[in-house]
Design brief:
The structure is a single chain. The chain has 14 helices and 21 strands. With about 550 residues, the chain is of the alpha+beta class. The strands form five sheets. A six-stranded antiparallel sheet has the order 11-10-9-14-13-12, sandwiched between helices. A five-stranded mixed sheet has the order 16-18-19-21-20, covered by helices on one side. Strands 1-8-3-6 form a four-stranded antiparallel sheet. Strand 18 and strand 19 form a beta hairpin. Helix 9 packs antiparallel against helix 10 and helix 11 runs parallel beside helix 12.
């Protein structure tokens, strides 16, 4: 049998029985009944009649008194411990319980029945005085609680209004431009500023390649970062659509500290959140680092979630606007190319036939070479015009076959070299890959021609173009490096967009756009390294299998 907590000492320590002598306390003890409750036990609930005929003295332990608002929120009215009492209001006004009372820990109570309580209050002025004093104290505390709750509500409302205004300003910012590169910068800057992060990255999802990509400043150069969907924190968010909030990066196994070691940056906390479009599809990922003043909180997640809706719409609008402009321009180019092909098909066919006849009749080796060159230039001109027409129409049929890549590249470069020699440009070759590769030979020939043509344009006074190939892991790396003028960063960022040219008056501005389309169709990727005044390297990375 557990020892009783119903002792003279405990009663003497109770607020209701303060200043009462021991003889009277012994008499009152006879009116009390001890009850025990386990932690989390409910003594009574709001609006119930359970225990409504008793007032409780707390002999040991603590209770929490709560009330539920009409909106379903539970508000704590107070916490009472040893020496306090509760349940008096229902005995005084004969109404159901006005609050819910729960044991916070192992609890021992002494209950007094209503009839005994009424008699005690009427006959004992000290008890009545203690009761009145305690009720007055609790009313004061209730007033303070109500005022504090009102202040908290006002503060929360003010914060909500501030965040709403911040979101409105953010929505204005992200809808201020249709330039996609500029738009992505604005979205990221808005996200960082709005939740007081130190820095961040905005990735977009590339469904075609199953990657996420972003552009980042590396020294003075902007580089493109690409990660497979599912890899790293951002890749995981892109794959699952789940938000990741890490308050302490170095104590979380999901964080990779090697990134900090390479960059020299110290990551304290991380917030990764998906950017969803109007169809709830993940089209990007926010990765935000080091909130000033502590870890990221739920309100930060709510704000980024709201911002992502506006951001995704702005991105789609920018893409749509650019697509409409390009489609209109491509349509015009397509009509022009179609007209050219229609008008020159017969004359060019005639020239080609004449060149073949001349080749058979001419005797000297030099004359035969000239005839071959005429045939090659006619074929090149027709193929180039057809290429522009196909690109403008969105045609991307592939005729893939396995080839000996070294032989194929040597053959293409031998033709390119003739054009380069006429422009005082030396071609150097460093072809290390000797294996097979599945490609569309005609399209890849156009890729090499377009890249070499741009390199030659960048070396108006002559120079050197180095073509190399090698295998790096599961990729075949092909590089063209020139000693030309290089290109500024803003041109590099847009070089694969249709109608972008730099440093030349001729050309359609479609060459590098066609190059990218062909490489994309081969499921490869392109990288560019360039430095003003020193030259440019175009790097093609094709899957080996």
């Amino acid at each position: 049998m557990e020892p009783t907590q119903l002792t003279i000492e405990n009663l003497r320590a109770n607020t209701l029985l303060k200043y009462i002598g021991d003889p009277e306390l012994r008499q009152i003890m006879k009116l009390l009944r001890e009850e025990t409750f386990a932690p989390d036990s409910v003594i009574f609930t709001e609006n119930s009649s359970g225990g409504a005929d008793r007032l409780f003295l707390i002999l040991e332990g603590r209770v929490k008194i709560t009330k539920t608002t009409k909106y379903g929120a539970e508000t704590t009215l107070g916490t009472l411990g040893r020496g306090d009492f509760f349940g008096e209001m229902e005995l005084i006004d004969d109404q159901p319980r006005s609050a819910r009372t729960v044991a916070l820990e192992q609890l021992s109570l002494a209950g007094i029945a209503k009839r005994d309580f009424d008699a005690l209050v009427k006959t004992n002025q000290i008890v009545a005085h203690n009761m009145l004093k305690t009720l007055t104290h609790r009313l004061r505390l209730a007033d303070q609680t109500i005022v504090s709750e009102l202040d908290r509500t006002v503060e929360l409302t003010r914060n909500q209004v501030d965040r709403l205004n911040l979101l409105i300003d953010a929505a204005k910012s992200v809808n201020s431009t249709l330039d996609l590169d500029k738009l992505l910068e604005i979205i990221l800057e808005t996200a960082i500023k709005s939740i007081n992060a130190d820095r961040g990255t905005l990735y977009l999802v590339d469904d075609f390649k199953s990657e996420i990509w972003s552009k980042a400043l590396h020294g003075t150069e902007i580089i493109e970062i690409r990660l497979p969907i599912g890899k790293g924190l951002s890749g995981y968010v892109a794959k699952t659509g789940e938000a990741i909030n890490i308050p302490d990066a170095y104590n979380d196994p999901r964080f990779n500290p090697e990134i900090d070691k390479k960059s020299g940056y110290r990551t304290n906390n991380v917030l990764c959140m998906p950017m969803r479009n109007r169809n709830d599809k993940v089209i990007g990922v926010f990765q935000l680092l080091n909130k000033r003043g502590g870890p990221f909180i739920a309100q930060d997640e709510e704000f980024i979630n709201a911002l992502s809706i506006h951001a995704s719409i702005a991105i789609e609008n920018a893409r749509l606007a650019q697509e409409m402009v390009n489609n209109e321009r491509l349509s015009a180019v397509g009509r022009m190319a179609s007209t050219i092909i229609h008008d020159i098909k017969n004359p060019m066919g005639t020239l080609r036939v004449y060149a073949q006849v001349m080749k058979k009749k001419l005797g000297s080796e030099e004359d035969v070479k000239l005839a071959d060159e005429m045939i090659r230039q006619v074929d090149r001109f027709v193929a180039m015009t057809q290429e522009i027409l196909d690109f403008s129409r969105g045609v991307s049929a592939m005729n893939v076959e396995e080839v000996d890549f070294n032989d194929t590249m040597e053959g293409i470069l031998s033709f390119i070299e003739k054009d380069l020699n006429r422009r005082k440009i030396k071609l150097e070759k460093n072809l290390l890959y000797r294996g097979k590769l599945k490609i569309d030979q005609d399209k890849m020939t156009r890729v090499f021609y377009n890249i070499a043509g741009n390199a030659a344009d960048a070396m108006p006074n002559g120079g050197t173009l180095t073509a190399s190939s090698d295998q790096v892991g599961g990729l075949i790396k092909i590089e063209f490096t020139d000693t030309g003028t290089g290109m500024p960063e803003e041109v590099k960022r847009k070089i694969f967009e249709p109608f972008v040219t730099y440093g030349k008056k001729h050309g359609t501005g479609l060459g590098m756009a066609i190059v990218k389309k062909v490489i994309d169709d081969h499921k490869g990727r392109i990288e560019i390294d360039t430095e003003m005044g020193k030259g440019t390297t175009i790097r093609l990375l094709l899957p080996a299998h």
